[in-house]
Design brief:
Chain A is α/β, with parallel strands linked by helices. The first copy, chain A, is built from eleven helices and 17 strands. In chain A, strand 1, helix 1 and strand 2 form a beta-alpha-beta unit.
Chain lengths: 356, 356
């Protein structure tokens, strides 16, 4: 049996003021009229029954996401009391699936990314499942469209041939976000993919790696596993998660795991991590502008206006990002979107919680 | 007896999106926590009793202005059915004052301007009243702070000596808004003042000029005058105002009137006609920014943020004007504020009346 596990926690602070504590990035309608989470479920539909689709999310974000995708059973939502990074999130899903079928194949997917070629996406998922059935830990690598310094990279090692027509390589190395010069060399070499955070593996195989490489986390996971289905579950989970540090699957498990392979693919993948990356997804007008919501513009160029109900009027602007939300407004130079994070940090420090 | 008549109609489209059909510029709290109209009344208080202060305004703006200045009797509000320019507005006040005292002195004042030296303002009003008592039509000229192309200019002629220490000149000529080169020459010559739209005269004298120079308007005014206090008044006024074209006092009356004098004064006068001029009135921070309302900024320079309740976050901006209102937002390059008018025009053409 195959399962899809969508990792749908996270805060998305770089998409402030739209993404908020009570309104996670995954719940936002950023592309078209479906939320990022709805898109993530939609593209799985032809391959998975609703009962095969799980989402790991934060307890306080779960109700909103569940309401957006009523076709998923409520039991599909695996709720973390607090976010502790991708390793605990994936581990929590894995122990739950082990109860049903230790040999089950588990695709770890995201709701942070937009994928235009969903057919190719499903084809590579099927190919990866075949590989995972043999015990490989499969990572989906994204063919780099640019020397981005915003992603980790996966270095391809020995070729293992092809599966369903997709080339497969042993993973030589996971690298952290590089500086620009290094990123350029990586892309030019043709031997690196972006790390998409999408993985396919057998439940028993990944839990074996957790046990070997992150024994402290694994110990907490087994305590939680014992409590599954009992009235103690929430309390045990909360206690366990309180004890955990933040840990990512990449550095906690994948870097030193055995038998890790990568399938480099081109599926029209975009990380919707910032307003700049979202702008790449929306069709601009002849002046390079993108307007979402009612607007009036005079002599405006290369500007993103992500509005809603309110009218946004722009005059004489160039390379500006405007994001309008109910109670907060962002106006930002277009090459400075990464600093939105700093605004959110300051609001935290100042205790301005109504805008977080 | 002296009267002050505040001309408080007008739309202020260049202050959109704050100024709206239902919320005239005069009713806005642009400087400090008093509206422009409240400031206009406040600075008269030491010189006039509430019963001596009148306001000419549009009927649909009258209730809001009246509620802002409860000390003025409701009868102080002279309501026009529609705005027809300054000449009909002043004429309407003059015929009403003539009923009480044809020899009354009437100071025509504005609520569009901010005056920092209110003591000097009242001193010059008293001086102008003395002159007006002798039959002069007195204009208050503003000593030009710059070669502005946004105002009409008044050319000084023969000196008539001083009154209460203020120099008095015959008016040689009223000029329309000049081009920059001409404005520079005017300011350098020292013989020109800005036309502030403030006048002091006897009621009988100005009505005599209306009769001689604008007989069609005067005929309508006398019809309205006959109906004053009757149950027909509103109907007669509406009919008369429907027949009128827009006419300003400057070109309709003052240019060819007899015995027009000017007192050039420095009273810290600022026309609050656009966001640029408002910015001149508010104290900037060390980066040249002005923030009204809650904000967070990173690397922002020479930027005006006129907000309110909502948080405005700015990153990497230079020379931008941001004006946030309940249902509409303006983001504008700082040298382009005059074009706000065009936005308003387009909304009219499109029938987007909710934002007008």
């Amino acid at each position: 049996m195959n399962y899809a596990v969508i990792i749908a926690g996270g805060s998305g602070t770089r998409l402030w003021p739209l993404s908020r504590r009570s309104r996670s990035k995954q719940s936002l309608r950023l592309v078209g009229d479906r939320s990022m989470f709805q898109h993530a479920v939609d593209r799985l539909a032809p391959l998975f029954q609703p009962e095969q689709i799980y989402a790991v999310t934060r307890a306080d974000q779960s109700a909103l996401l569940s309401s957006q995708v009523p076709e998923l059973p409520v039991a599909s939502f695996i709720n973390e009391p607090v976010g502790r990074g991708t390793a605990p999130a994936i581990g929590l899903a894995a122990i739950q699936l082990r109860q049903t079928d230790p040999q089950a194949i588990m695709a770890v997917l995201t709701a942070d990314h937009y994928i235009t070629d969903t057919k190719q996406f499903r084809r590579v998922l099927e190919a990866a499942s075949s590989l995972a059935g043999d015990g490989h830990l499969v990572t989906l690598g994204i063919k780099p469209a640019s020397p981005s310094t915003g992603f980790g990279y996966i270095q391809q090692g020995e070729s293992l041939g092809t599966i369903h027509g997709f080339p497969v390589f042993r993973v030589e190395r996971f690298t952290e976000k590089p500086v620009l010069d290094v990123a350029r060399q990586m892309v030019t070499s043709g031997r690196y993919s972006w790390n998409s955070g999408m993985f396919v593996w057998r439940v028993d195989r990944i839990l074996q790696e957790f046990r070997d490489q992150m024994p402290a986390l694994y110990a907490q996971l087994t305590e939680v596993e014992v409590a599954l289905g009992s009235s103690d579950y929430q309390a045990v989970l909360a206690r366990a998660w309180n004890r955990l540090a933040e840990q990512t699957i990449d550095y906690g498990v994948m870097e030193h795991a055995a038998d890790v392979v990568v399938i480099p693919v081109d599926i029209g993948w975009t990380d919707v991590g910032s307003w700049a990356s979202l702008a790449d997804l929306l069709p601009p007008d002849q002046d390079g502008n993108i307007f979402v919501g009612p607007y009036q513009e005079i002599d405006t160029h290369n500007t993103l206006v992500f509005g809603g109900k309110r009218l946004v009027a722009t005059i004489g602007l160039q390379d500006i990002v405007i994001v309008d939300s109910e109670d907060a407004l962002l106006v930002c130079a277009r090459n400075r979107e990464q600093e939105v994070r700093e605004i959110v940090e300051r609001l935290k420090i100042n205790g301005d919680s109504q805008w977080l």
